C-alpha cells in the first residue's frame, strides 16, 4: 500500500483475507494451578491488569501466512529496521582490509574472526525522495547517502567500533543486467511457439504473458491468493536480490571470507522489500557449490537487512547527524577502496544516462520500455502504438510492422485495483465436474463486449500480451510505501532549520499529488558524473552492443565463480497455503480410518 496516496483517495487497498493470528498464538496461557478458586467472581474495579509481553511477528511469519495480501506495513516487524543496522555495526568490528597496488586483501594478522564487511546498495527512487525533501539533485542525494554510510562525518563518527560501509553501490548497475535478461526471456518465450501453452514443456521459461517479478508486494499477492499466476512470473531476480548475490559471491571468493561475514544493507523505496530479503529462495543455498559448511549450517541471506528512505532519516537522527550538513561531494579516495575483482569492477561502475531514466521508461526501472525498445530495434521501420486505459496506471502497447501486422503486444498495470483486472483476464476457465459437460466457451471474437472501467478493453485478453510490467503501488516505485511523506518532510525540514512545524497535520490530496510529482521530477532529472560523455556513448552505441557488453560481464561473473549463470540470476516461487483455522496436531490412525470410511459412504 502506498504511503503517498491513501486508500480513501484511490480505493486501491485489498483487505486481509483473515485476521493475523500470530499475536494470539504467542500470548502466554494463564496459570490456574495455584488459584484457590478458579471460578471466583470479581468486579471490574478489582481486576488487576496483566502485563503481557508484546506480540512479535517476524517476516518469516508473514511469508508463511496467507492472511495479508499486500505488505508488512500493517503489522509489527521485529527485524530489518534502522535499529538493527546500528546494533549490527556496534556488535561486530570491521574486517581490516589492506590496499596495495590497487588491490584489496584481508589483513589476517589483525582479523579477530568476529568482524564483518559492511556493504550497501541504494535504489534511485530513494535518492529521488531525499533530493525532493532537501531541494538538491539526485546526484547530490547520492553523495549525501555515501557520506552518511561511509564518510568520516557519518556513521564512522560514532558507535562502538566506528564502523561504516566499505562499498556503497547503485542498484541501477544490476538493473541493467535484469533489463537485458528480461528482453532475452521474452524473446525466448516468443520463439518457443505461437501458442501461450507452447512453453509449458520447458520449465525454464515462464508461460505467456510473462509478468514482471521485481515487485515483492505483487509476488506475495500472487503466491497467497492466485497460484495460477505463478507459471507466468518472470524467473529473474530483482535488482536488489541480484545485487546481493553479486556482492556476496564475488567478495567472499576474492577476499577469502565466508558469505556470513559479509553484511549487505539495501536502501529501498518499499517496505515489501523486507519480505523479499527474507525469502528462502534468496540465500546462498541457491548458488552455493557443494556443502563445505555442513548440512546444519544456517542459510546466508543475499540481503541481510532492508531499510526505506524514511528509515534512512531515522538512522541519521539516531546517531545525531543532520543530513543537510553532510558534504554534498564524492567521498575521499581513502574511503572508497577499489573493488577486489578488477574484471568485474565495471559491473558496479556502470552509470545510466538521462535518456535511460526518463518519462518514457517510467518510475519503476523501465522493464517494459526496454523490452519494447529491444524488439523495435530488431524490426526496423516498426511503430509503437500506445493505448491508454481509464486511468494513468493502465497502458497497452502494440508494436506494429510497416505492413500493419502486430509484432508484439505488452502492457503496464500499476496498483492492486488494476492488478485484479489483469488477474481476472488470466484466470483459467472453470471446468464443470458434471459428466459430459463441455468446457466453458470464451466470448466470440466478433461480439461486442462491455468496456471495463479500469481496463483498456475487455476484448484484449491477457494472453495476447507478451510481457506485462506489474507494480503494486499506484504511480510506480517512486510512490513506494517507504518513501518520505509530506509529513516527514515537514518534520525533517523543521528540525534542520530549528523550526517547529506541525507534522501531524494531514496533507490534502492536492499536496500529496504535488509532492509525488516533485519526486518523479527528481527521479527523471538524474545526472551522471560525465553526462555529455555518456550521452555521446549512448548515441554511438547501438542497443545490441550494450546488450553484448552486459552478456560478457555476466559470463565473466559466472566463469569467475565457476557457477552456472542460471543459479546466479534466476529464482523460484511457491504457492502459500494458509494453515489458519486448521488443526495443527497430526491425526492418529483411528481418525484417518474414520475419515476414509466417511468419504466412501461408510461409518461407525
TrEMBL record:
Pfam families: Fe_hyd_lg_C. One of its GO terms (molecular function) is 4 iron, 4 sulfur cluster binding. It comes from the Eukaryota. Residues 435-448 have a biased composition (Low complexity). Residues 433-460 are annotated as: Disordered. Keywords: 4Fe-4S, Iron, Iron-sulfur, Metal-binding. Residues 116-481 form the Iron hydrogenase large subunit C-terminal domain. Residues 451-460 have a biased composition (Polar residues). SUPFAM superfamilies: Fe-only hydrogenase. The keyword Metal-binding applies. Component of the cytosolic Fe/S protein assembly machinery. Required for maturation of extramitochondrial Fe/S proteins. May play a role in the transfer of pre-assembled Fe/S clusters to target apoproteins. Belongs to the NARF family. This is Cytosolic Fe-S cluster assembly factor NAR1.
